[in-house]
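Thread: "does anyone have the structure for this chain?"

Original post by V.I.:
We have the sequence but no experimental structure in hand. Need at least a predicted one for the grant figures.
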Amino acid sequence: MAYAKIQSKENTQILTNIDGSFKITLSQENENITISYVGFETINIEINKDTKYLQIGMTPKYEKLETVLISNKPSPAEELIKRAIKRRDSNDPEKLLQGYNYTSYSKFIIDNEFNGISMQADSTSAAIETIINEGRGYLSEKVSEHSYSSQNGRREDVIGIETAGFDKPVYNVLAMEVNPFSLYKKDYELYETQYAGPLANNALRNYDYKILDTIASERPAYMVYFKPKREKIVAGLEGILYLDTESLAIQKATAQLLGAIRLEVTHNYKYHPEKDLWFPSNQTTKIRPGAGGKEISVFGGTISVGSVQKGGGLLSSIFGSKETSGDIYLNSSTTNYNINLDFTPEVKKSEAHINVLDEAITRDSSFWQKNRKVDFSSRDEATKQKVDSLIAAGNVERKIEIKKALASGSYPIGFWNLDLSKIFKFNNYEGIRLGFGGRTNDRVSNKFNINGYTTYGFKDEVLKYGIGTQIYLNKKNGTHLNFNFSRDIREVGTFDYLKGQNTFSILEPRFVNINFFYNYRRYSAGLEHRITPKLDTELRLSKEDIWQIKDYSYLENSEIFRDYDLTTATFSFLWRPFSKFLNTPEENIILEKNFPQFTGQIEQSFSTLGGDFNFTRLGLKAEHEIKRLDNSRTEFILEGNYAFGNIPLTHAFHSYPNNPNRESIFRRFSVAGRNSFETMYFNEFYSTSQAMLHARHQLRPFRISESFQPELVFISRHAIGDFEDPEKHQNVSFNTLEHGYSEAGLELNKLLGGFGLSAAYRYGAYHLPTFKENFSFKFTLQLQL
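Reply from O.Q.:
Generated one for you, tokens below.
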């Protein structure tokens, strides 16, 4: 039984875990304990220190009841929770107070259960060394100053951080919601997993509640048990809320999760009578192995905690140690102190959610002795002394380097970060395209990099290449000076944003079937600068020589241009106003990608300075995504493009068509893109002004089994546009989009690994005569690094 109450002679009280298990430490040789649970007979048992395992059965408590009237009224527990939800804003510090500040000390450990080895003052150095070599692999400490104002929100300044065994702190750990501050929010995030909040507006839909007891203390509390009622639909925790009997504020909370992992979370609050407010005082989180298979995000990658059992697992897979013994666990604790609930000065608005001060990584021992608010044991001290050998032996810093590089589509080999996107591609014009590319890393210099690539198409038999350098003027705010030269091909009608583009993809669906390219030779110089963590910009000046591959020419002022030169200036920005960022002395790191986000670009071509044409191209894209606790999601992308001036077709706009120009449905069978029109044929439409809307709604996964959970996605896409002076474009024919293009589709993803199926149908003004002309059938591929 979950959360049965066990009380010892000295009135020490514990609760059983959600599987009924418990562990109790005796202060005497023999001791009586009392076990009670609502609806069961209270029992007393005598136990002694020699007892290692005890199985206890309880007898239901039958009472003779008077005649009662059965009704459908809510249970007392539900009524209590409804009242607590209504009073939530008057108990939530961020709703009740105009401002507050406090300091916190956090300790994060990856360790092993060391099977009864006790670290006393007389422990030998040999015992300490054994524990370190066989177990603990990570220890970090952090001291932060937190401020909040109702106008500007929360700000965390990290004033001290130390990571045992690493030359530099592992900042990615700061990105994890290891100890969430508030239980009053709609969602409860822990290790990048969202759980339903036990006091959210829809809490009664997601949880069952039961009042177990009333705790008698200076401020009595209801002891309310909560348990998920829709576990297979919405992620939830099982635990206890201690609600103040007067204010219904949270005094304490414990939560657990058993299954793939074993998770234990405890929140403690302290009462501040001057504000009649319970404020978080300390929190602990512990994760141990469970039934297997659950992944927890650490260091920017994932570790399979669930697969860790005795004799291997976590330290073996992450830290390279094959000598681990006992079950590995992650343990984190945070203590809040110097709490000021009358903080009146305005919090300085910061674009970064967490700021790491420059001096944070150089704190001396006196700083840590002053600010440690939990015991720093001899085992902790030994970890600081010894863990560096584990880090080096497991080549952990190398693994972190690889994971960081993979996020940007590269793989570090010595001084060179290999660009994975340049190795292999295929399209109808080049055939197989093999290449090699990348850039130098900090092993060469931390002031600049040299980048380049070369690739060869076996069908067109042409070598393409590029070379450049990036000079780091200021790494922290992303100020870089770029110089590049490239000779390659590009799809006609392409509009690439300098910012906001995910340049790396294991598979580029549209690229396979593109057959209308042009050649270019480009010299460029550019400046990147991150104005704030949320606003990233780039300015580029370029000179391009363009010559055609197909028989296309552009008529301008009675002069026919087949080959031409362009001199352009391009400004691009990426604005993520709702995302959260970590600001470190070296760089800005995105913590949480939130929506909407906006990408914009303006490109001006000059008919002076060696250019043949004068035109302007504009683009603006808005992206929004709604994620839900049941793992369903809805996505919208709204994009508009506009161009005016002397615009050759090479620099007009296509609408991301992805349907090969073949007659049979199965001959058109290929890879479906994520934001492309699957029924629109290549080279069918071009525009000088257009607007596109992509809407995707993914239902929650179908839980057929633990390993087979396909996802059904409904898709709706629309485009409308126009084309100025189409008669200027010679030897090509195309349609325009002034009547509006529409298609609807379905995807059934993750049928076999990352593979699925896609079907779409064209309807509306550009509907074609036969079914097969309007229908597309393809496969999908979703791979995540």
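V.I.: this helps a lot. The chain has four domains: 1-72, 78-401, 411-460, 475-781.
O.Q.: and The CA atoms of residues 357 and 558 lie 63 Å apart.
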